[in-house]
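Following up on my earlier thread - several people asked me to post the actual chain instead of describing it. Fair enough. Here it is, all 507 residues.
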Amino acid sequence: MKLAYWMYAGPAHIGTLRIASSFKNVHAIMHAPLGDDYFVMKSMLERERDFTPVTASVVDRHVLSRGSQEKVINNITRKDQEEKPDLVVLTPTCTSSILQEDLKNFVDRASLNSVADVMLADVNHYRVNELQAADKTLLQIVKFYLQKFKELNCLNQLKTIKPSVNIIGCVSLGFHNQHDLAELKRLFYDLNIEINLVIPEGIYVEELKRIPQAWFNFVPYKEVGVLTAQYLKDNFDMPFIDIVPIGVIQISNCIKAIQNILVSQDQKVDYTSYIDRQTRFISQSAWFSRSIDCQNLTGKKAVVFGDTTHASAITKILANEMSIKVVWSGTYCLNDAEWFTKEVEDICDQVVISDDHTLIADLIAETEPNAIFGTQMERHIGKRLSIPCGVISSPVHIQNFPLSYKPFLGYEGTNQIADLIYNSFTLGMEDHLLEVFGGHDTAKSLGSTLSTKFSMNWSPEALEELSKIPGFVRNKVKKNTEEFAQNSNVEQITLEIMYLAKESIRA
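Reply from S.P.:
Thanks for posting it. Predicted structure:
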C-alpha cells in the first residue's frame, strides 16, 4: 500500500464496481468515505443516459464511533426495496479493511431480509489492484450463479445447434471496449458463429445459466476474463481462446485457433480464404506497411507502455508489421510480468515492468524516442518533452472514450491503429516548419527534460540560443550540454559552456 498522486491501475474496489455495473440490474454498495464515490462518473465517460447503479455507504464520524453494521445493512435492504435488483454486491475499501469490519457478517444478515442475492466481493484490497479485482469479482459472480443454478437443476448444458461463443471480459470503462465488442460481433458473424453470451457487459445474472451452451469461450483482453475462462474449462470442459486479435498477424493466429477448436468438434470449416480477403481488402494496414509513406518511418524509434494486452499488441505491430524499432516496451501489470516478457522480449531491446510513473518518465527522457505509445500519463510526459504520443491503453482521458467508431480489435481496428501510429510521428520538417512560420504548436518549453539527472541552471543568453535550435534535436542538445556541464562541475550553463559542450562531442 502506498500513497501516490498517479496510479496506472486504481484500487481494488474500482475493479469490483466495473464488473457489477456491467451487468444489468445489479447494484453495488461501496462502503467508503466521501471522496471514493467518483466512480459514479462512469455514466458520463461511457456516454450513458442512465445513472450508475452504485450507492456509497459513507464511512463518517458516526460510523467511526458506533460501527457501520446497521448503516450497511440498512443501505442494502433499502436498495433492495427501491431498485429491486437481482444481485447486490458489497465492495469493501481500504478504509473498511483498516476498521476491520466483518462485512461478510453484514452481508449474511442483510440476505435474510432481501429478495435479491447479496454478495461480498471477496478480494484482498491490500494485495490486488483494479484489474486483478475485476478479474476475481467476475469469477466469483459466475461461480456463485453456476453453482446456484446447478443446485436448482436449471443449468442448461446442452450445446447450441450452430457453433457459438461466449465473449468474456468486456466490462465498463474499458479502453475502446464498446467499439471492440462491435467489431468482435462482426467477426464472429462473418465466421458463422453465434454469440451465446457477452459476459458481463449488458446481461442479467439469470442469463449465466446459458454459459455451458457455448462451444467455446473467447477472452479478448488479458486483464479480465482469463480466470473465469480457466474455471469453465476445468469444471465444464469448455475450451477457450485468449489470443488478442489486435494487428493483422494476431488476428490471423486468432482465427486459426478458432478454426482448430471447431474442427476438433467435427465442424468442417476453413477460414483461409476469409483471412486472405480481409487482410487484402478490408484491412488497409497490410498494404500501408509496404507503402512509401510507411517506409518514411524506417529508422524511427518508439517506446511502448500500457496494460499487457495493448502494450504487447502495439509492440508486435510496430516491430513485425511496420518495421519500427521498439527501444523498450513495458507494462504496469506487475502480476503479468512473465507473460508480457515472453510476448515482447524478442522484438524490443528492453522489457520494462514497473508501475512507477517517475521511472517511466526518466526512461523516456533518456531514450529520446521519435514517438511514445502509452497511457494518458505518457501523453503528459510527451507534451513536456515535445515528443508525440499515441494513447493505446488505459488509464485515459475522456477524449479516449470517442463517440465515433474506433475499435482496436479486428480488421477495422488495424486501420485505426495504423492511422494512430503514422500520425503520432513528427514527419519530415513538420516541427521545424511550425517554428519557422510561428505555428500554434511552436514549442515554448525548450524541451524541458523530466529526468533529474542533468537538471541545470541556464543563463538567459543560453536559453535564447537553445530556442533557436530546431525542435527535433533540441532535447538532445539540451541533455548533452547539461551532462557536459555537470561533469565539468559548472553551476550555470552559459553560451561559452554550450559551445564547449558542442566541441567536446565533435572531439
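The mean pLDDT is 85. That should answer part of your original question.
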